[in-house]
Specification:
Strand order of the largest sheet: 3-5-4
Structural class: mainly alpha
Oligomer: single chain
Number of domains: 2
CATH architecture of the largest domain: Orthogonal Bundle
Largest sheet: 3 strands, antiparallel
CATH topology of the largest domain: Fic-like fold
Helix content: 55-70%
Radius of gyration: 23 Å
Shape: globular
Number of helices: 14
Mean pLDDT: 93
Strand content: 5-15%
Number of strands: 5
Distance between the termini: 44 Å
CATH class of the largest domain: Mainly Alpha
Low-confidence stretches: none
Order of helices and strands: EEHHHHHHHHHHHEHHEEH
Length: 388
């Protein structure tokens, strides 16, 4: 078996006449041997926890109500890696409650990620639609950059100019990493797409996902937004392989928490051909995230039952049915105002205020502004499950 070679440096010249070396990744393979037996241990653990998460997601009643928070958490953490400062709670706030244009812009990047994920997942789940593909990837990228930072960097289109990672803004000389030349990108992507669909059993699916993520980030096919699209593809690839039926995995939390180790592990492959180190790092994250995801779903079910018991302790039996309808909606959007309750439940303003006040009294809702008017309420214990 041939040793793994990640790629080679290719000499190139920039439009400004500057000489540099771009990295050209090797064609992807499935016949890679692993020297460290820990790879197989981690693979088994990750596969087990992911299977439990997927099975539990199928058993949870009304799982679609809880999918939104999972996707939002993934979007918030993946965007945070790229520098946005939006919190999970802020994703659900109105513009006037965010506190400035910078916050609004950051939140827009997160909501774009959510829209991008949702449209891609819908296509993956639609019968007779193409599986994960370069076209789906480009469509996701176009949605991701619509109207936000990077909107002028050819959303949805493969790059035709050289890009780089790190270093000064105007020079390639001190870049940390220089991806493939523009003329090499398309063929590298075709190879990646073939690898996505390769059913060779020699390489387990979870290792394929790890390897494919490394390869995508190494190709860096877009002018901007490569990190977010690459992390989005992880979930889509797992769904394409039938290992997840719903997007209930938020791996970006692990990657954000270990951001420098994440970047270092990717560079370790490019510089030292050490794919094994990256695979172990990825499998540890997948294992721990899937385990936490299953525990979160378990906690959601317990909290849901507790919420329903608290509602049954409220004084007005006639309003309890309305409260349960509202509670279901809050699982998808856990931040709300009395005015929104009024519209959602088609009730009068006084009734809406009574409902939120009674839910606050039994500690289901928590008022966050401290103001007398324009008050905002959160389903705070539910949000805490995703923030811990």
């Amino acid at each position: 078996m041939e040793p793994f070679i990640s790629g080679t440096k290719v000499p190139a010249t920039s439009l400004q006449g500057e000489g540099y070396s771009a990295f050209l990744p090797s064609k992807m393979r499935t016949d890679i041997a692993w020297q460290d037996p820990q790879v197989y241990t981690l693979l088994e653990q990750a596969r087990g926890y992911l299977g439990e998460l997927n099975a539990y997601a199928k058993l949870v009643p009304d799982i679609d109500y809880f999918i939104s928070a999972h996707v939002t958490k993934e979007a918030e953490q993946s965007s945070r890696i790229e520098g946005t400062q939006t919190t999970l709670e802020e994703v659900y706030l109105d513009d006037e409650d965010l506190g400035g244009q910078e916050k609004i812009n950051d939140r827009k990047e997160v909501t774009n990620y959510i829209a991008s994920m949702n449209q891609a997942v819908e296509q993956i789940l639609t019968p007779n639609q193409p599986p994960l593909s370069l076209r789906l990837m480009c469509d996701a990228h176009k949605t991701l950059l619509s109207g936000v930072r990077g909107h002028n960097k050819n959303p949805g289109k493969i790059r035709t100019v050289q890009n780089k990672i790190g270093g000064s803004q105007d020079s390639l000389a001190d870049a940390i990493y220089i991806p493939p030349r523009p003329e090499d990108v398309q063929q590298a992507l075709v190879d990646l797409e073939h690898f996505w669909h390769n059913i060779d059993p020699a390489m387990p699916n979870l290792i394929k996902v790890a390897y494919a993520h490394y390869q995508f980030e190494t190709i860096h096919p877009f002018d901007d937004g490569n990190g977010r699209v690459g992390r989005l593809i992880i979930v889509l690839q797992l769904m394409s392989y039938g290992m997840l039926e719903r997007p209930v995995l938020y791996l970006s939390e692990y990657l954000e928490r270990n951001r420098q180790a994440y970047y270092d592990a990717l560079m370790e492959v490019r510089e030292n051909n050490n794919l094994e180190h990256w695979v172990k790092f990825f499998l540890i994250g997948l294992r721990d995230t899937a385990k936490k995801g299953r525990e979160t779903l378990e906690a959601i079910i317990d909290l849901r039952h507790d919420y329903e018991r608290r509602i049954e302790r409220t004084p007005s039996v006639s309003r309890q049915k309305q409260m349960k309808i509202l509670l279901r909606a809050l699982y998808s959007k856990p931040v709300i105002t009395a005015q929104e309750v009024e519209t959602l439940l088609s009730v009068t303003k006084p009734t809406a205020h009574k409902i939120v006040n009674e839910l606050a009294e039994v500690k289901i809702l928590k008022e966050k502004t401290g103001m007398e008017r324009h008050r905002v309420y959160t389903l705070h214990e539910y949000l805490t499950l995703f923030n811990n």
